[in-house]
Write a structure and sequence with these properties.
single chain, about 300 residues, alpha/beta, Ribosomal Protein L15, Chain: K, domain 2, Four Helix Bundle (Hemerythrin (Met), subunit A), 2 domains, 4-stranded mixed sheet, 10 strands
Amino acid sequence: MLGRIVEVSNNKRHLSMYRGFMLVHSTGEDRQEVGRVALDDMSALIANAHGLSYTNNLLVALAERGVPMVLCAANHNVVGMLWPAEGHHQQAHRIEAQIACSLPTRKRLWAAIVKAKLLNQAAVLAATGAPDAPLRQLARQVKSGDPENAEAQGARKYWGLLMGPLFRRDQQADGVNALLNYGYTVLRAATARAVVAAGLHPSLGLHHSHDNNAMRLVDDVMEPFRPVIDWTVWQLQSQGPCVVNADTKRALVQSLYQDLKADAGTTPVLVAVQKLATSLAQVMVGERDKLELPHPGVPQRHTEPDDE
């Protein structure tokens, strides 16, 4: 069963734990329970409101289950994340292998990630009716380590083709940018859980290297899946005004439960993220040669057996 990504976005809430549930109470004179979620059903907790308080018991219970807690600031940008100190029975072995990973191997892995991202961006463009040849051409030119920065070249072409020539990606802006921020926040939380569950250290990246970024590997691993969010945001903006509200948040979260195709078959995006993180750990310790990346394409609605 896929875990639930839970967001607390209403102000003045108190979060606690009781008999395996996270309880949400209102604060003030009329304190009352407004919701509860089974801890074992949670994949990530996103704190996206003012005046929240938490019990230490809840934070410990989340960490024991490998559930990251994401702290958001203005415009839905991530400013912090709590994750467990232990995530896999081979964690020490895998982190040692991660530290010892050679530069040529890191470059080869990063090139595979960049190529997958560009091909998925091309698939999104094709699905919207925009020209996809520029991104496919760049994907064919990616070399080990991406020395020509095809990823950045692709971004410059991609956003104009997807959102129009006047669009600029700005994390502080509203509208489409705010929707992208929120979607990437949800994806980042899910990826952080996958990285830790795979026994890897989130700060030891393949390519991302900014000193202030404690989630460099998380940002590496999530790159091929960013187009999933882009596709959902494009669909939302084509339907009406771009506003971050309960409906658009729900659509962005649900996009991670849709299906992508891969060599092993069709799988939800969240599972594909976990498979990529696990395959990365296996490459690090010499158990396999290639990453398990999704096939290029836009996600499709997840079909349960009951739907057939």
